Structure formats: structure tokens, C-alpha cells
Amino acid sequence: MDTVFLFPGQGSQRHDMFQPYQGTKHFELIKQLIEDELQEDVNQYTADFSSTRHVQLALLIVGVSSSKQLVEAGIRPDCVAGHSAGAYSAAVLSEVLTLKDAIRFVDLRGRLMEQAFPSVYGMMAVQGLDVNVVLRVIESQSDVYLANENAQQQVVLSGSERSLQTIRDTLKEKGARRVTKLSVTVPSHSPLFKKRGGCAS
Q1: Are residues 36 and 111 in the same domain?
Q2: 72 with 145, same domain?
Q3: Residue 56, domain extent
Q4: Residues 71 and 5 sit within 8 Å (Cβ to Cβ)
Q5: Within this chain, do residues 88 and 133 fall inside the same structural domain, yes or no?
Q6: Which end of the chain, C or N, has fewer beta carbons within 10 A?
Q7: Which residues contact 153 (CB under 8 A, 6 or more apart)?
Q8: Per-residue pLDDT of the chain (201 residues; tens, 9 = 90+)
């Protein structure tokens, strides 16, 4: 049976996400590398999730350190994949990127995204409602887009916080089982980035 390592993107972060790996060889290695490269304390990343840059760097730390720990224990992937920011952890594990280059890319990516959207934007997950119904609902908002279609009845929307809040009740009225605001402060995977010059796409 094939083994696949999948690395998640933003929205999967937790304030205690470093805890299981602190003190382990690979965690301490990447922590030291980031602190040397970026001249900052990595512990701030999990303390402040209002920064998309912090979240993305935290995901890189956990993705790389946890997967390397598995490999060292004899669990090797036949293939790897990453969603959004998780692609950088996958690229490091598959040796497409060096760890140092991945740190630089993720740092730059996060900075550019924050510059493009310093506030009032975000993402929202919708579960239990057909994607076609969701698309009809968001037609009423010029700044809300379908960002991810995870399954026929599980999608993620990106847009302004005001417009996302406006359609929240409508989605529930249409039958959505759950509508959840994600811990993401930018409208990832949407055309809004192109409208800002595409600097962080």
C-alpha cells in the first residue's frame, strides 16, 4: 500500500501546534534556522495568528519537522502533496526546495499577502450545501469568490469580511449545515489578488 504525506494550508493552525515537537531534533533545527535567517523568535508565530505570515511560517515548521520525524522513524512517503502554504513543506521533504529557500519563499509570500490585504478580508467554509447553490448565493456580492471546492458539499469562500458576513445567514437559510469563519486574514485563492497587482499570487 502506498504512503502519502499531505500537508495542510492556512485554517489548520492551532495555538499549541508546536507543543508535540518542541525539543525534537528537526523542530529545533528549523527553529534555529528561521531565527538565524529572519532574526525573530518563532514562538511569536503561534501567539499571533492575525498575521498570515506568522501562520504560514508556523505551518512550515510543523510540516517539515513532523514529516522528517516520521521519515527518521522509518515511515517514508511514496508521494507528497501540499495544499496552498502546505506545498512548501511538501517541496522541502521531496527535496525540490532546500529548507533555507523555503523559509525565504514563505516569509516573502506572507509579507506580500499582508501588504496586499492588511485588513478586512478573510475566508469562510461552507458545509452541507451543494456548490451550485453556494455559487448562486455569492452572485449577489462582487467581492466574494469560490476559493476551494473540497467536495460537492464542502467549499471555502474568499472575500471581504463584510460581504462574507452578509451572506452567512443566507447560506444557512438555504440549508448549509455549518458556516465557519476560518482563521485566515487574506482572501486566498481568489481573483482579488490579481486586482491588487498579483504581487502575492
Answers
A1: yes
A2: no
A3: 4-116
A4: no
A5: no
A6: N
A7: 127, 128, 129, 130, 131
A8: 899 999 998 888 888 889 999 999 999 999 999 999 999 999 888 887 778 899 999 999 999 999 999 999 999 999 999 989 999 999 999 999 999 999 999 999 999 988 888 778 999 999 999 999 999 999 989 999 999 998 889 999 999 999 999 999 999 999 999 999 988 888 888 888 776 655 544
CA–CA distances in Å: residue 12 to residues 7, 17, 25, 133, 184 = 10, 10, 23, 26, 10
Residues 109 and 13 in one domain: yes
Does the predicted model carry a pTM greater than 0.70?
yes
Could you tell me the end-to-end alpha-carbon distance of the chain, in angstroms, rounded to an integer?
36
Q: The domain that contains 66 carries what CATH number?
A: 3.40.366.10
The answer to whether residue 199 sits within a structural domain is no
Place of cell 476559493: 147
